Amino acid sequence: MMFDKIKDLICGFVEVDPEEITAESKLTTDLGLCSLDLAMLSSEIEKEFGVSISAKTFATVKTVGGIVDYIENEQK
Amino acid sequence: MLPTVVPSVKELLDESAGRFGDATFIKYVKNGEVEEKSFIQIRNDSECVCRMIRHTAGKRIHIAVIGKTSYEYLVFCSGVLSSGNVFVPFSPEISAVEAADLFERADIEMLLYEEEFAGKAQELFKTCSQLKNICCFSQASEIYETYSASSEFAGLSDVKEDKEQCAIIIYTSGTTGVKKGVMLSMNALVGNIMYREYCTDIFNEGVVALSVLPMYHTFCFSGDFIKNLKDGLQVCLNGEFKDIAENLKRFQPTVIRIVPMIAQSLLGKIKILLRRNPDLTPREAAEEVYGKNIKWLISGGAYLNPELVDEYDKLGIFLRQGYGMTEVGCRVSVPDDGVAYESVGRIIDICEVRTQNGEIQVKTPTAMMGYYKMPEETKEMFTEDGWVKTGDIGYVTEDNQLFITGRVKNLIILSSGENVSPEAIERKFSTYDIVEEVLVFGEGNKIIAEFYPNADYIQANGIEDIETELEKIVDSLNETAKSAHLISEIRVRDIPFEKTGPGKIKRYETKI
Questions:
Q1: Residue A48 touches partner B, C-beta closer than 8 Å
Q2: pTM
Q3: Are B323 and B333 in contact (CB under 8 A)?
Q4: Do A39 and B275 touch (CB under 8 A)?
Q5: What is the CATH classification number for the domain harbouring B157?
Q6: Whether residue B59 has pLDDT greater than 60
C-alpha cells in the first residue's frame, strides 16, 4: 500500500515511530523533516513511484496523506 | 601574508592545466552517466567562452550568469572572469521581476543562463532595455567550435587584466531587504584563497571533494571551485540536493563543504541505520551514508551546534567550521585541528581581526571595493581607519581562534551600560528538551528569558508546574553566568514566537 511505503521511506530520515504516522501528520512540524530530508525523500519517491515532487510542491503538499494524493494524481 | 602577485582566475586555469594536465578536475552525472573534465579541458572551454564574450561585447561590461551548478556553469563563469568583464552571479530561483530590478541596478548588459531559465531570460531580454545580449549554456558546443584556439578569434583570449578593477559583483541578501552588490577585485577574489593552510592533509592533489552548495554563493564558488582549482582537487558536482545520498555513494568524497543543516540531516540517517543494524559500528554506519573515504566536513553559513561536532568526531569525521563574509572576500577563519568545538576556526594569515565594543572587525587586502552604487551603505560597513565591520559579536583567543557569540544588532545594552549577547544565553538552553523556543531580551536593567515550552515533553514527563521547572534550569545556568548575564525574570507563553524566516524568531524592539 502506498501510504505504508511512504511511511517506511520517511522513517529512513527521521527517528519516529511508524505507528504514530497518520495521513494527517505534517511533514515538517509533526515529523521534523528538514528541507534536505524532503529533497532526499523526493528522490526515494521518484525511484519508487516514478513521480517527482519538487521543493515548491512540498510547500503545498504538507502532510503524508498529501504526498499520497499527489502521487496518485500524477499517476493518473 | 598575501603573495606579492596574486594570480587571476585565467592565470589559475593556465597554471592548473600545466600542473595537473589531463587529471580529472570536474566530475558530474549527465543522463545517468558519469562525465569527467580535465584541468586542461576546462581551461580550453573557458577560453572559448572568453573569446565569444569579447567578440560579442566589444567593451568591458557587466555580465549576469544564472544557473545551477554544472560543468557549463563553471565554464561560463570562468569565461567571464577570464575576459576582463564583470561577473555578476544570481540564483536560478530568482523571479523575472527581481532579476529585472537587479539587472538595472547592476547595469547588466549580457546574460548567460541555463536552459531552465530560458523563459525568464527571453522575458528579461524584452523588458530590460540595457540588456543587449543573451546566451544559453546549451550553445556551449557551438561556442567551443566557433571560438576554438584554431579559429580566427584565437587572439581574443589574450586579455590584459587589471587585477585591481572590479571582477565580480555578488548580491547579498542583506537584513534590510535591499540587496547590496559587493564589489570584489580579482586580487580580492583569488587573494582570499592564497592563505597559508593550517590543515595540510586535506587540500591536496587528487583528493575528492563533493560540491553540494550553490555556486552563486561566495563560500562555495571560492572554495569548491577557485580553491580546489588551485590545489588540484577533483570536484564532483552534486547537482540537485535530492541526489546527495546517491552521489555520496557514487563519488565517495573525502571532503565536503556544507551548511549545518546537511550535517544534521545526514547524521539522522546514520542514527537510524545504527538503530536498525545494531551490528554496525558508528564508523561503518557513517560510511554507509557518506562513503568510505569521508574525512572532512567544512561548515559555514550558519551557527554550528558544538554537540553536532562532537557526534561527528565519534564517527571519525572531522566536522569543523570557518567564518567569513562576502565583504571581506569570503573567509576570515578556517577549520583547523585542535580548535575548540565552539570556535569558528583559526584566523587566516591574510586577515587581521580586532574587537571594538565586542564587534569583530577585519582588516584584509581582500576586502570589498564597496557596494555597487551604494556609497552610504559602503561607508557604514567600514570604520574610519579602514576595518570592515562584521556586525558580529565575538572574541579572539591567544592561539588565534575566533569565537562568535551574537549579532551587534541584537545586542542588549542594559541601563548599566553592560553589553549582553542574547544569542549566547539562548544557546545555553538548547540542551534542555523542555525548551521548544526561547527568546532573551532586555528591559530596563533586567535580562528576561521568555519560553515556549515543548508540550510533548511536558506531557510525557507529567510536568505540572512548567514555570518552576524552567526556573530550576535558569537558576542552574545563573550559577555559572557572569553577573551582567544573569536572567532575572522568566516568562512562559503558550503559542510559538513569530518568525522572520525559517526558524528565526522575530526579536522584540528593545524596551530599554
A1: no
A2: 0.83
A3: yes
A4: no
A5: 3.40.50.12780
A6: yes
